[in-house]
Amino acid sequence: MKQQTYRVSDLFEKYQSHRLVKLDRILLLCLTLVYGIIALLNLGTLSFPTTVYRGEVGESFTLDFGQEVNLTSLWVNGNIAQGTLRFVTEGEDSRTFTQDQGDMFKWHQVDLGLSARYLQVTVENREVAINELAFFENGTLLPVTALEGTAAYLVDEQDTVPAAPSYFNGMIFDEIYHARTAYENIHNMSIYEWTHPPRGKLIIALGILIFGMKPFGWRIMGTLFGVAMVPLMYVFAKRIFKRTDYAFLTAGLWAFDCMHFTQTRIATIDVYGVFFILLMFFFMYEYVRQDFFSTPMKEKLRPLAFCGVAFGLGCSSKWIGCYAGAGLAVVLFYHLICAGFTAYKGHDKGAMARRSLYRQQLSITLLWCVLWFVLVPGLIYFVSYFPYYRYQASIQEDYGLLDMWDTLIKNQKDMYNYHSQLTATHMCQSTWYQWPFTFKSVWFYVSGGNGTISNISSTGNPAIWWISSVGAVCLFLEWVLGKVKRDAVLPILFVGVLANYLPWVLVSRCVFLYHFFATVPFILLSTVYLLFLMERENRRLGWLKWAWLSLAVVYFVLLYPAISGLPTGMGYAGFLENVLPASYLYYGWV
Amino acid sequence: MRKKSISALVGILVVGLLVMLGVYWYRQSRTASAIETTLSLQAKPGALPEDWYITSYEEAYTAYSGEDGIVTLVSQIPDDLRLCKKVTLKGGTRYVLSGRIATEEVTGGRGASLSIDNYSLDKSCVYSQSLYGTNDFTLEQLLFETRPEQTQIIIALRLGGYSEASSGTVRFQSITLTEATGDEGYFQVLTPWGGTEEEDEDNAFRGEEQYKSFFAIIVWAAVLSGVLLLFGIYRNRRMLTEKTLKEKTCRWGFAFVAVVGILLRLALCTLFRGHDTDMNCFIAWGQDIARNGTANFYWAPGREWYDYPPGYMLFLGGYSWVLNLFYVDTASVAGIFLYMLPAAAADVGLALLLMRYARRRNLNNAGALVLGGLVFLNPALSFLSGAWGQIDSILTLLVVLSFLSLLKGKRILSGAVFGLAVMIKWQALMFGPVFAFVHLFTVSWKEEKRWKDLGQTLLAALSAVAVMVVIGLPFMGNQGPFWFVQKFLSASSGYDYATVEAYNYFALCGANWRRAGEYMINNVLTYRQFGTIAIALAILCGAVILLQRGRIQKRQGLTLREDKGAVFLSAAVTMALIFTFGHYMHERYIVPVLVLLLYAYACYKDKRLLLAALLFTISTFLNEMMAMYVVSSGAIDVIRGGREHNTILRLCAAMEVGECLYLGYVVIDLLHNLKGRLGPVFIKEPSKQKTGLYAFVEEGLQK
Predict the structure, then answer these.
(1) Which residues of chain A have pLDDT under 70?
(2) I need a surface site. Which of A31, A88, A357, B245 has the fewest CB within 10 A?
(3) Cβ neighbours around A297 below 10 Å, total
(4) A-chain residues within 8 Å CB-CB of B687?
């Protein structure tokens, strides 16, 4: 007789459940913790000047250095304004500095080459708004005091001056739009970034409210959403596969995807769009996986309500939520129609009962959908424009509900016109068919010197994107060949891919790799699903998933310096750029 | 069965031809109604054609037209010499201006080109690709798009360009202007020059990005074909081994494969119109031989670089003569496709031959059908014969035929066929050693048959030489009957590079287009030396495989002649090794390996051989697409050696080298049962006791 053997992999097959069991909770906690620590590491500084000096044209003040010093360079940490400052020494030697949009909330370096004890500073043009000034004599920070009261804000937080300007202590890439606008929303200023709905910036603003207008503050909410995606993926996968190993695999792969890492550590709004898209598809799956006839109505409709809320939050973060919403409609109606076919099959007594039940449930469901997919999202969208209303109300008298409506509609038109008529090119732009194989990353940040380089590029983990792209095509092929059994998750996966990917085929404006971000979870799930099917057929293939996860982690570790800003040797950067098959990470800088 | 399959094949070819003719006539009727198509260059000798006028910087030019509709422009000093004609057409529309250009000693500046010179009207100007030096008539095309408000253009047949003056002699012929069907390629828009700097930069950036993004399409094509081949076959693997179809279904199945294959090639031909150089050469050479005969073909001045052997030239000449009887327009898609048809026919031949062979080797008919499909729908072969227009399948067919006839005992015939193969493409010689080994190893050393076999082997060699000499005779001119030996020697060193877009070991080392004489390891080893050693070892491997199989067979009381697979295996391995580690390789030289491996699979039914064939197919397909894109694209400087090109090149080369090593492993395993010996080392027995981890997981998973 054959002796019994104990294989760990058999256990996952044996104990299947779509709920989280003890092991799930342990794994989930560990994974989230590990990823959370990696994501929060070197995210941004909390030591950042927060008091602002604002000056109109003609305003003037004097800075005192205590003794005659050589002012070789000046670092300006700007706020939101455009204007020119003139620095004049006692010897009538002078320099100017022009504050521009790109200089805000980071340490901008200016060469001075002046020699003085007192420096007369005048606002020469328009207006300036500056958080802090730091003067250097050959790399040494000089102590300085302001003689006039209001100008004290300029030099009151000298302890926040960093050793060197970097991504860690300043805005990078599109943060100058999104984080800036979040700041404007808080302070009820004119809204600069209006090409996307405001929800994302409001969430960024929450972080700023808690931690202050500091790099950590404007990045933290995105990072937390990124961390939250990991358990979300875990639960989603557990519901689909009912197996702990596959749930862990999915969440692990997602945690170690490079774009998930980079894109959630910058204060832009894509992370919110993608998070809510994932959430709405999760709840839609919760809905469609239940049987239409046997599940109690109350239980069945609950996920739909959550789904609608997620849809509203997603749309009001970025319009990609609307594309995904169109996909949800397809899934929902497909589900309802399939149930209809079941109901109208057969002529026995049970069939008659099913039909009347179907008619009754269908009408309730549709009404419910009108409430949760039209009215509630509409309300959420309307409410998300609160900063616009508040600002308009502050500059316009008798600002009423109808005016709010006008503000809302005007912004919708502006947004549409902006995106449809945008013809500008961008160094980092790429085309939709380049994305799955990570031909070109989006370059957020680079700085170098002394043989090291610090770089942040938003790109996919090749081990995840390349394999997932091929896997998704394979699953589709399987399905076409009729080799996949019917499963409620299949429409979710296919529609998830198509609804998030196809729109970019038609879009005429320049597009970027991160527009593929919302598609990645679905190609990832598709490939894991394929692996799941194959293992079910042939248990010897079980090792594949662990090999895949290991490869992904190895790739993540290898690419970490290029996606996190960690300074690294030029030699290693050259290896990443020219030898390791990956994306275009350094744009030929190494 | 045989007769029926032949008649089915003929039927398919007829249908294919009819479809093509239909498409051709449809295109003709469409273009004729679009706008005036042919811009006549006919004129009295000496004068200029009507409605055409000259514009130039300098006065020192000559311009005249001959009776045959050829206009000649000559300028001894650098000039921007233009023969112009004003044409009215539609705004916002895509057009193709095409014509045949011959040059003599054109140097400097922009060279000879077709151009739209609207600078005097709206400050826009575009050029086709430039021609320099001395060239026979070649087809040039200028793809351009008018802006919505543009309804007038000035066509300029041009020597030189703005601030890019050239000198020399140019002849233009058969100038046509047609509305594009939309798929010809990249269309230059007639935008005015002197836009803002930013706009210019934007446009240049866009153009460059467009070229670079095309790499993604190439990768997609390779990946999708890989998915279909590997995953599709893996998930339907039962077809290969277990399933038996009705004979009728099988025949219809092949008819389906054949029709899809023809349509696939037609589509590819419409999209790509053949490899720029190769296809134009084939057409020009065929036409030349059809008109002027063979005697002077290789020997007229300026033809030293004609490096193809005479066999295919002879065929091309006859074929062109027949096509000319039907007034086939060689510039049209239909015309180009007709020139690709011989290679496509060879593909069908290979597929049918393999299917029949597989059935003889006791493969079930569904499996044979899959193999046939793998040949005729093979992406690497389809691309080569449909998009590129190369004839490696003809070579492969002849090599396979010569092996098959040798295995059947028809030794003299096999020698003759091999001679023919060499005359079609010199690369056949790379199979020479294996061919010779098989001849020698199949000599029966028994007393009574020994002399007969040896005599026949000698006769086979003689017949090969005889075939070569006979084919060479019409081209001999005033050279000796063995003139082709000299031709071969000059051809073999014609591309003196470590590798020419062949993604093999050298490419992996970064030696694409490096001179073969360069050092691979400083002052120790050149690429040529490494390649020579590798080729010698590859030939040795081929011999060892044959000997080893022979030994195994002998133990079982059989001869090599009865173990037919060994021949294909040995040929495939030799060629794969030569391609991977040898020098002078072009991307296409690996093609016979794919087919030979399928034959080997049909004999041994070892699925790893099939896997190797499929893997080679994918890397070869990718390699072919890249080689053709890099050469055909107008932006060769942007893309060759660029990041995308390098990355794909390295990946593909790594894949190819990996495949070669895998094939080596499979073959060694076939010969020595490696797996049986090493297997137990790697397979771990599952634990017989509950481990700590097992208990922990089990506890965690229980609700």
Answers:
(1) 1-3
(2) A357
(3) 13
(4) 5-7
Continuous H helices in B159-196: none
Which has the closest alpha carbon to A181: A194, A164, A168?
Answer: A194
Residues in Cβ contact with B459 at an 8 Å cutoff, skipping those fewer than 6 apart: B411, B412, B415
CB B169 within 8 A of CB B74: yes
Q: What is the pLDDT of residue B34?
A: 45
Task: Give B155's Cβ-side CA count (13 Å radius).
Answer: 28
Q: What is the pLDDT of residues A482-491, one digit of tens each?
A: 889 889 899 9
Position with higher pLDDT, B689 vs B703: B689
Measured between alpha carbons, how far is B210 from B535 in angstroms, rounded to an integer?
40
CA distances in angstroms from B280 to A106, B276, B339, listed in the order given: 60, 6, 10
Q: Are A237 and A247 in contact (CB under 8 A)?
A: yes
For A189, other C-beta atoms within 10 Å of its C-beta total 15
Q: Which CATH class is domain A53-161?
A: mainly beta
User: Could you read off the pLDDT of B476-487 as tens digits, one per residue?
Assistant: 888 888 888 888
Residue B294, token pair as written in the block: 């063979």
- Rounded Cα distance, B453 and B491, in Å: 34
Ordered by start, the domain boundaries in chain A are: 53-161
Percent of chain B with pLDDT over 90: 42
**Contact residues, chain A to chain B, C-beta under 8 Å:** 3-8, 11-12, 14-15, 17, 19, 21-24, 26, 244, 424-425, 429-431, 433-434, 437, 439, 469-470, 473-474, 477-478, 481, 483, 578, 581, 584, 588
- Tokens representing A40 are 């929060």
Q: How far apart are CA A380 and CA A197, in angstroms?
A: 11
Contacts of B697 in chain A (CB under 8 A): 8, 11, 23
Mean pLDDT check: name the lowest of A72-81, B206-215, B408-417: B206-215
Interface of B with A in 540-559 (CB under 8 A): none
Question: Do B231 and A7 lie within an 8 Å CB cutoff?
Answer: no
Q: What Cα–Cα distance (Å) separates residue B111 from each residue in A374, B101, B168, B176? A: 65, 11, 9, 20
Cα separation, B216 vs B532, in Å, equals 36
* Gap from A535 CA to chain B (nearest CA, Å): 13
Of A165, A3, A75, the residue nearest A565 (C-alpha): A165
Q: Is some CB atom of chain A closer than 8 A to the CB atom of B304? A: no
- Residue A147 per-residue DSSP state: S
**Residue A77 is which amino acid?**
N
Task: Residue A11: list chain B partners with CB under 8 A.
Answer: 694, 697-698, 701
Q: How far is B235 from chain A (nearest CA, A)?
A: 8
Q: Distance, in angstroms, between B507 CA and closest chain A CA?
A: 14
- Give kind and range of the element (H or E) at residue A60: strand A60-78
Q: What is the pLDDT of residue A166?
A: 94
User: What is the rounded CA–CA span in Å between residue A118 and residue B595?
Assistant: 86
Are residues B701 and A23, on separate chains, in Cβ contact within 8 Å? yes
ipTM of the complex: 0.86
B686 touches chain A (CB under 8 A): yes
At A179 the pLDDT is: 95
User: Mind telling me how many Å the CA of B529 is from chain A's nearest CA?
Assistant: 27
Contacts of A102 (CB under 8 A, 6+ apart): A176
| Cβ proximity of B583 and B516 under 8 Å | yes
Residue type, A245: D
pTM (predicted TM-score):
0.82
What single string gives the DSSP state of each residue in B535-590?
A: HHHHHHHHHHHHHHHHHHHHHTT--TTT-THHHHHHHHHHHHHHHHH-SSEEGGGG
Q: Residue holding tokens 């043009």?
A: A125
Helices (H), A148-214: 175-186, 199-211
* Domain spans, chain B: 38-194, 211-241+495-674
Specify the fold of B38-194: Jelly Rolls (2.60.120)
